[in-house]
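Re: folding output
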Amino acid sequence: MPRYSEFYSAYAAGRLDPGFALLVETQGALRADVREAVAASESIAGALLETSDVVELTPGAADRALALIDALAPDTPSAPPPQALDDGLEILPDQLRDFALAAAAARGWKMAAPGIRRLSLDVGSEAEVELYKIQPGAAVPRHTHAGSEYTLVVTGGFSDASGNYGPGDLAVKGPDDTHQPIGDPGEVCYALAVRDGGLRFTGVMGVIQRLLGA
């Protein structure tokens, strides 16, 4: 599992997967220390670029590079129709809100468990990127992970056996971790989850998952 701090240098270099880039950008909108860490990484990347040896480009290289960048960069979501405006999404940081509104208009929320809804975000990522809406006291089914999972609390909070997580906090889990997040009392919790492997449920949910071949 990569250290989250390693994402900053990859983000500054423009080579971080779009799903994880959205995670960094969203946490940066919530926490000054993350913004400072990203800025420091960008300064280092700029300094390294300035001291690199100059290499002559082949004819047309700049145009080809720009075309590749355009092909890799996810399109900025267009403004959703009024009916897509979901109560609560307007409080999300700008970039996350735009993707969430576009997803709500295109696919809508799915029920994950009583009091819990999930929204699959299309950000051009190879990872699974989802926004969760967790009502106070609602419990995510107990599960482990096929790979690494990074869950950022955007509003409200949730708790599991490892502790309490509030706005700007990041819960990092891997295949050896089994947990059951429960929404904290008070405000509804919005959480952005980015994972490079699916969830593996335990108990009855796990039996159903295996029967369905998921």
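--- second protein (sequence, then structure) ---
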Amino acid sequence: MSKTVVITGANRGIGLSFCRLYKAQGCTVYAACRTASPELIALGVEVIDGVDVSEKQGIARLASVLAGVSIDLLINNAGILRDEVLGNIDQDSIRKQFETNALAPLMVTEALMNNLAVNAKVALITSRMGSVADNTSGGRYGYRMSKAALNIAGMSLSHDLKAQGVAVAILHPGLVGTEMIGGHGDITPDQAAERLSQRIEELNLSNSGTFWHSNGDVLPW
């Protein structure tokens, strides 16, 4: 039986690679994004454009299109990266990262909560830069803070959704060569999606709420 997968931030990078991977596996893929890319359209998935997950209207559009759709896997992938340096902090930049990286995945999950099938899974694409124990270089205030906030939201979701039979993974993809970081990384988006999908496959109610590196390592909080 084909699974239904919903992916945010699907028009490029890891999101696009997730779409390609799950489409190849025979899943029904709903690809949410602000603007569809030619590469995404070419995959032949169900594209839901006009979805800015940091805006109420974007989430409402996503929920409206998916009304009545049973979801087996929700991947909250959309995110942004900005850089702030102490002495020149931009509050608006940090606020936007919180809205997109931390608040949006929570609100998307809540909006689609009743769509989640029994034994469904929710994946949050976070970063080890949200780890307090792993912060050895400072900086990147908005990104680090927003990803730490996403991590704690994921832990709460893992508890609150357990009674519904839904497991939650908190996933660091690794250093991926995407446009967001200028194209330089240790692995490609396709490799990241493949590794992350393995972690999602291993996800169950007993390990729900775990903070994983895509290579399978459990990361420190």
